[in-house]
Amino acid sequence: MHFCVENLLDWYDNHQRLLPWRQEINIYHTWVSEVMSQQTVLAVVVPKFSEFIKQLPTVYDLAACDEETLRQLWSGLGYYARARNLQKGAKMIVEQLNGHFPQSYEAWLKIPGCGAYTAAAIASICYYEKVACVDGNVIRVVSRLLALSDVWSQSGQSAIQDYVNNIIPAERPGDFNQAMMELGATICRKSKPLCHQCPLQKHCLAFTNNCIAQCPPKKPRRTSVNIELFALIIWHKETNTFALVKRTKRFLKDTIGFPLVSTDEVIELESTLYSLSIQISKPTDNFSHTITHHRISGRVFIVQLTENSDSALILQKLGFSAPIYWVKRSDIAEQLATTLDKKVFQLFLMQN
Ligand code: SF4
After folding, report:
1. Dihedrals φ, ψ of 14, to 5°?
2. Most exposed of 98, 195, 306, 341 (fewest Cβ within 10 Å)?
3. Nearest CA to ligand 1 atom 8
4. Catalytic positions, written as ranges
5. Superfamily per CATH, domain 225-351
């Protein structure tokens, strides 16, 4: 075993955090926890994980779960596409693999939403397969251990992958992967790393050379793109209900929320509403929102339907197909799963 791996595993044995999915090896639990933990902090993941497993204890329950329940169980974790893919994967396991989980890294890669990182985590933890996980935490730890100045290029990424592939021990690959991630999350932190508590300090070149702040170097930023969007609040005033749709286009695809339309579409939409004698408000003040490198400048139109409006026909003419969810005002706050929708509704509240 590589000398620094022994220190790392000793440290992990004594300092690992007690997490609900670490109590015993359970493939389903490992899979769900790994998907939930991507881009979400553990303090949020732990209670959501426990509730998720309580409500959907098996892969069969996940496969059969209705969308509304899944959305509620995922709310607060963000990136709902992950939940959708998780369920797609569960359906594939139930329908095509008779409920048997894939047995290797390669086989997990075929499951929807399961990339190299998740497949490596599951295969190493549950099947003792010697495949290394590389995420942001691991990149940071390795770049400091080796004092690497190039980590974001193709060759830099390969150097990191090769290094962990070389040192991952055959006896405890899952613990090694978890220990590296744990070390990155709790000790070798992005800022103010706790080097005096680090089990790898005497092997760390960045510590020895006093260049921790330069490792890893800053990631080159993607150029941001400015986008103009309009959100529609379709409001049935008499029943005080709001139309939510399942979005099928680029932004927030597959989430349920207020319809979003582009600048081109809004012109057509206004003329359709005019021909149907439906009232549309002036656009509200701007709201801003960022999704990855897209900087969205949005405005909100309120489309007010009356008792006599044929809601289904209007929505169809506006190009919104079923399912349409009519949500009561008293329930809307808890039904809005994305920050963008919450900002949109806030603008509505300021006017109504
Ligand atoms: S010594 Fe410090 S910089 Fe080096 S690996 Fe440990 S925590 Fe990270």
Report:
1. -95, -20
2. 98
3. 188
4. 34
5. Nucleoside Triphosphate Pyrophosphohydrolase (3.90.79.10)
